[in-house]
Amino acid sequence: MRALVIHRYFWPDTPPYASMLRRIGEHWIEGGHTVQVFSTQPSYKVEVDNEQRPKREKLGELEVVRCSLLKEKSRSGLLRATNSLLFAIKVFLHILGQRGRWDVVMCSTVPPVLVGMASSLGAKLMGAKFIYHAMDIWPEVGTVADQLKPGLVYRLMCWLDTRTCLRASAIVCLSEDMRDSFIARDSRLSNKIHVINNFDLPDYAEPKNAVAVQPKMAGIFRVLFAGNVGRYQSLDTVLKAAERLRDRTDIEFVFVGDGAAKASLQVRAKETGMLEKSVFFVSHQPVAVAKQMIAEADLALVSLAPEVIKYAYPSKTMTYLAMGSPLAVVVELESELARTVQQERLGIVVGPGEPEKLAHAIAGLSEQPEELAAMRIRCVEYSKLKATPEVLLREWDRLVEGF
Q1: pLDDT for 230 beyond 70
Q2: What is the mean pLDDT of residues 260-264?
Q3: Rg of the chain over CA atoms, in angstroms?
Q4: Which residue, of 120, 181, 193, 392, is most buried by count of CB atoms within 10 Å of its CB?
Q5: φ, ψ dihedrals at 52, nearest 5°
Q6: 16 near 320, Cβ under 8 Å?
Q7: DSSP per residue over 267-299, as a string?
């Protein structure tokens, strides 16, 4: 198999999928396939001067081709939309310029809608199979996160993305909830969908940006969130739970990562007198450092805004489980994630917008050290069965063997 894989952000850029895609590509190469990645210069962090990479490079046998876009020094919606369009155009031209070199073209849903459309059309014109790897489902997830209003633009995006899905040989999504959402959009997609979750985040060396992180102190019950501190995460519920536990000097909340919601959360924590007392913020860390912090935590947070779980899955969950950290999940109780945590006894679950229940559950578990220790063991065992790269890459093998 000769495969072209496409994603706006690729290692050493810092989104989790940037590293996961590298691992998938390396695995296919280990199986005797040829793989090229088409991406851009590292640009995910607009606040820093990202490391520039060669336009063409080899990571072992993995070929990486990077195009250039307009420099993003802010999170301006217009600039990001312009770059999304430019990337989609460059993806399409790159596929056509390869003159039928590829048997399979795979792209993710970042940037949404446009890159999928460009990749699927290019693959069709070149006679290649197309895999649509859905990290989230647009435009639906945009509406529940208040990024997009229902209307003409929404309907157009939905129509375009459905056409992309119908052109696909396979749609890979991360959960049964996402599968159900695709089928609710168009029942014709049902036989194309494969549920293959993301795996424990690979630990490739990352450049710079680590900070000295104070280890968890003895006698402290640490609740940790690691990942994008953004609008999908609804972390205001977590902060409200922290406010209800502010008199518990043995419980602390640590948020590791950056994102659009971080500044407002810091302001709220400062106003309530919790900042640097029971609530702490740490910037994005290399995977090795983040994993160490997760392993030391007593509870690892997974929080999503209402309905987001229908259209996306928090892949940080798999890294939490691999590190043996019990979960504190804030998500709809009927979701696949909530059911799994409850059935496998991997942590605690409360619904969105229920800070009182979250605070009560955290406080209760902090007083059950034996149950917490048993949860750690169950998390690791579940990870080995369901969430390791070895397990999930076999699912990818079975998928491409059908091509």
Answers
A1: yes
A2: 91
A3: 21
A4: 120
A5: -85, 140
A6: no
A7: HHHHHTT-BTTTEEEE----HHHHHHHHHH-SE
